Design the sequence.
């Protein structure tokens, strides 16, 4: 079992498989991209598989595959096939921009990988293109509808961006009105590769809730697991649900059960901190399994209590880009 120094059980690994992406969302990275990792610094698929297996043996039972855009990694399905056969791993999920998932939908279904978080910060094409700086709207929207039709458990992640997509908040709720999906509104975090800095946000989760309930007063709060980062609601008569994720307000740190490992092997114990160690050399050296397990246990034993503490402890944390951290 992985238990941190604040007595929180860590059973959820967010594993990034690349820092590269075919979109350029302006809240995530600058238009020109970031200094992407060199190929030989990325963990190989076989290293990612061993790492996952050893983490599952240590008590991880949920792995989310993220990036960058996971599907730009050509051999992603090789990893997913191994994960789907891994004993003890109860939940495999993917966070994706849904531009490249199309050819893999059938196999994902066969593998039983049905939990897809799909990032979509706009329902209007112009808003989408302005935010992502790319023209992939039709592909994303069609893949979204396909995933829903195929019975995937789809959660739409919508980052609320002041002066950018406020006009899309109410229209995107139409998706959860007609389909059994959850639309989750996330607060913007200042991890955009240094292209924009801020230390407060106008559109926090309270304001988003007020805005939604002014249009839909008949909402019911849904029960959520203690470790959930999302506060969930159902609008009367709608098929799906909506949620609020206070990712900037950080109300959920007390029950945080997550560990992040980036595509280059950096181990991050809090989004608002810097990497605590790197596993790449361990994975490539002698006695990798024992050394990895010991190093992870040690790192988990030195977590900050909250995102605010982590932010205090690390200078320049806001130079980071979410494409390297994995969200
Ligand atoms: N490319 C995939 C995607 O966009 O879904 C996976 C990686 S992306 C970095 C993971 C999640 O982080 C996405 O839901 C994205 O919207 C979110 N994200 C990126 N930058 C963010 C920021 N500055 N604030 C809040 N969320 C952010
Ligand atoms: Fe790419 Fe996801 Fe970042 Fe957008 S949020 S640029 S899709 S990694």
Sequence:
């Amino acid at each position: 079992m992985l238990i941190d120094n604040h007595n929180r059980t860590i059973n959820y690994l967010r594993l990034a498989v690349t820092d590269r992406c075919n979109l350029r969302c302006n809240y995530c990275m600058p238009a020109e991209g970031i200094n992407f990792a060199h190929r030989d610094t990325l963990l190989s698929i076989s290293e990612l598989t061993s790492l996952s297996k050893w983490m599952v043996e240590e008590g991880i039972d949920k792995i989310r595959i993220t990036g960058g855009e996971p599907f730009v990694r050509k051999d992603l399905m090789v990893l997913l096939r191994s994960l789907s056969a891994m004993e003890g791993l109860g939940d495999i999920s993917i966070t994706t921009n849904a531009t490249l998932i199309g050819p893999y939908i059938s196999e994902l279904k066969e593998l039983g990988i049905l939990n897809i978080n799909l990032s979509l910060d706009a329902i209007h094409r112009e808003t989408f293109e302005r935010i992502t700086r790319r023209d992939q709207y039709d592909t994303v929207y069609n893949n979204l509808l396909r995933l829903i039709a195929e019975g995937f458990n789809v959660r739409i992640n919508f980052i609320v961006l002041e002066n950018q997509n406020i006009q899309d908040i109410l229209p995107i709720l139409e998706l959860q009105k007609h389909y059994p999906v959850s639309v989750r509104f996330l607060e913007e975090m200042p991890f955009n590769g240094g292209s924009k800095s801020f230390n407060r946000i106008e559109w926090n989760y309270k304001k988003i809730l007020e805005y939604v309930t002014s249009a839909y007063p008949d909402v019911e709060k849904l029960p959520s697991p203690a470790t959930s980062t999302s506060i969930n609601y159902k609008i009367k008569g709608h098929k799906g649900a909506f949620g609020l994720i206070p990712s900037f307000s950080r109300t959920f740190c007390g029950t945080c059960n997550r560990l992040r490992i980036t595509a280059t092997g950096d181990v991050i114990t809090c989004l608002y901190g810097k990497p605590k160690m790197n596993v790449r050399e361990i994975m490539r050296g002698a006695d990798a399994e024992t050394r990895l397990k010991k190093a992870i246990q040690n790192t988990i034993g030195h977590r900050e209590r909250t995102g605010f503490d982590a932010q205090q402890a690390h200078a320049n944390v806001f130079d980071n880009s979410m494409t390297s951290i994995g969200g």
